[in-house]
Amino acid sequence: MHRRRTWILRRVLISMWLAGFACLAWPVETKPLFTDAFPPEEFAARRTRLMAQIGDGVAVLQGATEYAAFVKFRQNNQVFYLTGLEVPRVIVVIDGRTKRATAYLQERNEREMRSEGPVMTPGPEAVTLSGLDEVLPRDKFAAALQALAADGRTLYLPRRAEALGATSPEYSRGHADKSMEDQWDGRLSRELTFLQRVKAQAPKCAIKDLDPLLDQMRLTKSAREIAVVREATRISALAIAESMRAVKPGMYEYELEAIGDYVFKKHNAQGFAYFALVAAGTNAWWPHYHAAQSRLADGDLVLYDYAPDYKYYTSDVTRMFPANGKFSPRQREMYGIYLKFYQALMSSIRPNVPIPVLMEDAVGKMERELASFTFADAKVKAAAEKFVDAYRRRGSRARTLGHWVGMEVHDVGGDVQSYRPGMIFTIEPALTLEDERVYVRLEDVILITESGYENMSADLPVEIDAIEKLMTEPGLSDVATGATASTRPSVR
Length: 492
Fold this sequence. Notes:
With 492 residues, the protein is of the alpha+beta class. It folds into 2 domains: 40-218, 3-Layer(aba) Sandwich (Creatine Amidinohydrolase, Chain A, domain 1), CATH 3.40.350.10; 223-487, Creatinase/methionine aminopeptidase superfamily (Creatine Amidinohydrolase, Alpha-Beta Complex). The chain is built from 16 helices and 17 strands. The protein has helices at 2-25, 40-54, 77-83, 110-116, 124-130, 141-150, 169-181, 190-201, 211-219, 223-246, 253-266, 329-347, 355-372, 378-394, 464-470, 476-481, and strands at 58-62, 91-95, 100-105, 134-137, 155-157, 207-209, 271-272, 277-280, 301-305, 308-309, 318-322, 403-404, 424-427, 430-433, 438-441, 444-448, 453-455. The strands form 5 sheets. A 6-stranded mixed beta sheet has the order 4-3-2-1-5-6, with helices on both faces. A 4-stranded antiparallel beta sheet has the order 12-13-16-17. β16 and β17 (453-455) form a beta hairpin. α12 (329-347) runs parallel beside α14.
């Protein structure tokens, strides 16, 4: 009996010790209930700006649904931009008259909580975390809408199909239109369905499009947004640099794509901002080529254009590099004159100057580069002349030098008369030999500042010698196999 008591006591003490050790050694880390991308005051400032624009009106938005698959939840961009809430099926009401913002959330679901971890639910804690004025159960929204309807308030609702990552306004809109026009589909987008339901419940309310107001707000980035885009750009540049180090003839395009996937995940991106454009040789001719099934040949130029979805923001950086680590003489000629044109365009960017004036300045520089460049290949010269002529003909009609970047890779914003501080965009002109399907393109992320601009991807090499030097460094594939960069095949 004494031995049995001693054995039981020993087991109890060991169990207590293990339990205590487990608490110390393995602290429970869960996803925060509210985003760490920005503090609540950042979202509150955006709502305040929106309230000033809608006056006596009321903005009403619905969040994304959960996925019908084992996929991590991602909020749509418009709801995240205004609230930071990462909760499925949230409904948000922002009242311009009362200056109050209310979210309607689903009630606590113990089964989902146990499966997916904690999520924000209605109550005082949600108010404290989010900075919203009220966070109520979702079934309370119907009564709130009835009150707005009885008062005849003007309602602002999004009309464009929601953006859920790896998309852009034209893609979201185009997909929704195709589905609606398809005789074997015919479904409305969630936005149009929601709008119809709201109209039915509030027939006396005027309904206006919320998207143009938010698009203009999103066009100029805050300091915190700029910091997130800068980090997304840094991650994108790391992926491209690692691909430059690792590439060699005989690899497949998908192997280089996998390097980007690894780098993105290693730096805590929640996904990718668009499918990887990894194109070897003539595959680069297709602007959005993404099959990634071709094998790299000695002598191929490789185009690499890939960026992460990082805290709901993205980037868009492109580089081209030789699969064997050395530009051939013809590649040096074509890439060389293109780079001079590219830098002429970039060096002409200035804030608060009409875009046609910037274009005229860039064309003048290109013409001087064209006149002074020594060409060995008549076809390259003809392509260069065509490139400059295309920019010359745009002239006074120019409304942009590239496309906006922000929460979407081709971000919202539209045409502007001139660039203003806080705007972020890319330039990506292309030089082509059409009959050969030869294509050269670079892309950098430009932030307009008070005095000029910042090239946010400037640390990623663009000059031929700098690219070749980087490519002599060991890459991820070399580290995995124990090989060195010197084992790459030489130029034929």
